[in-house]
Each structure stands twice: as C-alpha cells, then as structure tokens.
Amino acid sequence: MTSRVKIFSGTSSLYLAEKMAACYGKPLGAVDVQKFNDGEMSPYYKESIRGDEVYLVQSTFPPADNLMELLLLIDAARRASAAYVTVVMPYFGYARQDRKDKPRVAIAAKLVANLLSAAGADRLMTCDLHAGQIQGFFDFPVDHLDGSAIFFPWLEQLQLKDMIFAAPDVGGVGRARSFAKHFAVDMVVCDKQRKRANEVAAMQVIGDVEGRDVVLVDDIVDTAGTICRAAALLKEKGARSVRAVCTHPILSGDACQKIEASALEEMVVTDTIPQRNSTQKIKVLTVADLFAEAIKRVHGHESISSLFV
C-alpha cells in the first residue's frame, strides 16, 4: 500500500505552505500549536498521520521559536507513527555560521542539522543554502533546490540588451557564474572588505560594466548595505542599469528604505521569508510551485536533479 502525502505547516510559514498545498493539489493538513502563558509551545496534529509521508513546512528565520516549533512538530509526527518525515525548510536559518572563522565561535548550521536529526527528521528539502557544503552536515538526504529556476524565466522575459551578472562579494562568485553560464554572458565581481558584521569598509569592481545591464546575484539580503553599495559602484563604473535577484529577503532594519533610495532599478526576491515591509522596487516571486513539484517527485521516487544543484 502506497503511503499518503500530508503537508503541514508551522506558524511562521503558513502563508507559503497554503500555496504549496494548492500547487500540489491537496488541502493543507490540520495542526494546532497551543501556547502556555509563558510562551511554551505544544503542537499537535488534528488528524491521523499513522503510516503517512509527512511534509513539514517551516522556515527558520527569527524568532528562534520558529526552529523550536519545527523540532516539536517533527517529534510529534514521529510519536504519531508517521512513516516518513520530510522537513521543508525554504529558508535555512543560521546557515551563515557554517565554519569557525575566528576562535571560540559556534558552528550554528551544524548544530541545527544535529537538532533536526535528533528530533527525528528523515529528509530535508531547502533552497539556496548560504554554503552548499552544509548538505554534508546531514546524515540523511538533502534536496537542495535551486532558486535560479524561479529567476531564469523572469530574467528571460526582460530581454535585456547587454546583460552581465555581478557577484556582490567574492563568496557569491559561484552563484553569479551559474547565472552567467546559463545566459552565455560575462560576469564581474564586487570585492568588499568588512570592518565588522553587516558593515562594509571598502569595495571595488573587478571587471568592465561600461554600458552594460548588470544583474547582481545573491542568496541573502539582510541589511541591504552590500547590495546597495555595489549597485552605486556599478553605476559609477558606467553600468546602463543595475538590478538584483535575491532568494532570501531578510531585509532587517531600514533595508527597504535603503533599497528604495539606491541605484537599483528593481530587486526580485522569493517568498521564502514573509515581507512585513516592502518598497515599490521589490518584486516577490513564489517558490511554492518549485517545492510542490519536488514533493511530487520525492513521493513518486522520481529524479529531482533538474530542481537543484
């Protein structure tokens, strides 16, 4: 007997899980998260999941309660005799801490991987990890979906005359190169130096952008300081236009105001993180179709290689 697919959502990603379930063609499963007066959470499933394939949708952006709620949902599914538990985490929080870059710091990405394993997850489905090698922190399958599947069609319809891609920092060279390779165009790099986290000290462009339509490619935009400074520098170097594509729009603090006042023509992001504040320059594309298709293929034991890198 083939197990049934049931899709559930944590509190913070309900907006996206509803779209995923609609794309998949099933109603979202019933789950409730009760809270004690002190904020302690107690989730429970309002329907039987015995022997079912359970897909739990929850991104782990702040607050940390989102991660804790996800862990409790995994544990509850295991104790309710679910046959298979897949964590659908469009945005993998704490991924920026993936190594010891200075003494006496935590490797948060590895810790989150350990917590998911300990809670009882069988599989992880995510999109555009900050560093691809984070997949190696897990001892179960990881489906690393590629956000470029969302951005490529949008870029194609723009029909930019002389497009070139740019990495806003050296760490983003791989992402920018994959976009450049797909469109068979050149790329440049904005080399930055930081004073401290979230503060850029200096930046320079490596490559020629004179008269070109530049597209900056990044996985995360937090304060938007780097991407706005890169856009200004590219315009100074003679770029005809500057746009940006970014998978995970954290957009903390006054990031939206910075983007509105920046040299960017527009910034295209996905809905892996809900937008509480926005600006006319930001366009949001959904990842719901991408994840729904991945769930279908995983359930049907089909290849999903075209959906991730």
TrEMBL record:
Keywords: ATP-binding, Cytoplasm, Kinase, Magnesium, Metal-binding, Nucleotide biosynthesis, Nucleotide-binding, Transferase. Transmembrane segments: none annotated. InterPro entries: PRib_PP_synth_CS, Pribosyltran_N, PRTase-like, PRTase_dom, Rib-P_diPkinase. Its EC number is 2.7.6.1. The keyword Cell membrane does not apply. The keyword ATP-binding applies. Residues 5-120 form the Ribose-phosphate pyrophosphokinase N-terminal domain. One of its GO terms (biological process) is 5-phosphoribose 1-diphosphate biosynthetic process. Gene3D superfamilies: 3.40.50.2020. This is ribose-phosphate diphosphokinase. It comes from Catalinimonas alkaloidigena. The lineage of its organism: Bacteria, Pseudomonadati, Bacteroidota, Cytophagia, Cytophagales.
